[in-house]
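Sequence, structure tokens reproduced for absentees:
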Amino acid sequence: MFQRFSRLSNASLFVVFSIFCSTASAEKVIYDTDMGIDDWSAMLVVANHPEIELLGVTSNGVGEGHCAENMVNIPGLLALSNSADVPFACGDHFPMDGYFVFPAPWRKQADTLSGVPVPTTDRVPTELNSVDLIHQLLSEQDEQVVLLSAGSLTNIAQWLQKYPEDMPKVSRLVMMGGGFDAPGNIIVPGFTGDHPNKKAEWNIYVDAVAADIVFASSLPVEVVGLDLTNQVMVTPEYAKRFKSEVKTPAAEFWDKVLDDNDWFIESNEYYFWDVLAALVVVEPELCQGEMQSVWVEHNKVSSGDKWADTSIPNVTEEGIARSHYDPATFGITRIGGDNPAVKICRHTQPQRAFDALIEILNIQDSSNNKTI
């Protein structure tokens, strides 16, 4: 969708933005995020793109960020973009079932935006929770909407259960999560080095019950999993190139995040995760794949071990006793079964993804002159 802009100057991109905002029929998107590090650039992609109308941002406390901090950080990030005024909300603080969470240091990084400041705003979240905001936004549209999920699928699963009549309103659910042939990413030296789960991916692992509900639905799902994201590794060379092309507050913010995470980049373990899913929304050709049925492992056990966070309430939001699950298999995505087929992204264009992020984050409406 955006490749034709790749050689335009920054001044020309101002013009392009104005033209598309006034004449094009933008694709409408709802962004569901856990506000982890890669979610920030993903948000800026869909908030900045001239052919995307960002309808709203939903979050929860299940993933990396906590609700209180997310409700401050989301409007701050949006203030750097061309979609500063969209509504935002938070959902539940805990997964639909189970006791698994992200490591505490990762959650602190999410809550503090890696120490990089964003504009302070006086905006407040909607009075609706995330599930009800998704429903309201879909109900207001005459055409179909893309859902972009860049965290646990908790909000999406709960929305499906509460408002199944909304499903025809969704043209695509593009989700970052899972993996099939690629190794999992639960085991991270220094944080979870002795974890027994070698196949799951974090967004699915923290709420595998929610993920299984989504895969069992008839939503048109596109899975941007580790098989795809592992093809787009962030390197020191790319970070250097990004810095050399910064022209807007959005790009300046992301450049500072890359600076703060140079150790992560140098570890060769940092990839385009959630941001690749956002790029698939705006450039669908970045996902080449196959249609397959998918199900998610979630095997109950009688009690938890050290990987269970027992600070989580032992009763779910539905008032049901919370279950323990086998951490060695929880959240592993499997091909097979009788669920409706989803699109599994297998191949992408790494260079195009790298280029597109630089281009999109450097688009700025001439009326947006905020600095950080």
Notes: Residues 290 and 343 are 5 Å apart (CA to CA). The domain at 27-361 is CATH 3.90.245.10 (Inosine-uridine Nucleoside N-ribohydrolase; Chain A).
